[in-house]
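Researcher: Re-running this chain for the archive, since the previous output was lost when a drive failed. Same request as before.
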Amino acid sequence: MMSGYRLLLEVLVAVTDEAITKIKQMIVTGELSPGSKLPREADLAERLGLSRNSLREAVKALSLIHVLDVRQGDGTYVTSLEPNLLMGAMEFVVDFHQDDTVLNFLEVRRILEPAATAAAARAMSDEDLAALQEHLDALPADPSVDELVQADLEFHRRIVAGSGNPVLASLLDSIAGPTHRARIWRGLTQQRATERTNREHRQILEAMRARQPDVAHAAATLHIAGVEEWLRQAAAAGNETD
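Model: Regenerated structure tokens:
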């Protein structure tokens, strides 16, 4: 009985996957463009050689990852397909990871964000860099942990957005969930976290204002690696006490 149920489930998944693939192909080839409305369910199912049930399941799956937008009483539309919209699904998955896997996300961030920082050093306007300086200067001398974390998040968000690469910016933003928890943990437990974070932020910005991408890359790498190393040591210490 169980093997028969499993076989039926596998068939249903395969049929839904086929439906997803066919809809995706229509978008990739340009037959369906961002913002366009899908044909009526019955017409589309017949056209693609699918059952209406499998098409319906495919639409549900694609709407969950923001490829399609189901509007009650109006129809189903292809979304804008902007990177920040599509990366939302990754953020949803990332949030399920526990703190013991934050190191994996920090490693990804350490690899990607310095490249974004170097690009921002070349691309951001003098006005944007001046505004970034004002953002750093606005942090109170003795900020709360929440103020420090929010200021840190905004500082890095502005830089990756200034890289000029929306895909890279969206990807880094999508992994901010677990690294956000790491920042809070660090702010709660590490002495002089405010002083160190502020100093490293200013070093990054100084290199950017000097239009030195390589120096900005190195400063960002050291900054993120410091958080990563601190968390690695904290995790090791926690395992020893278990």
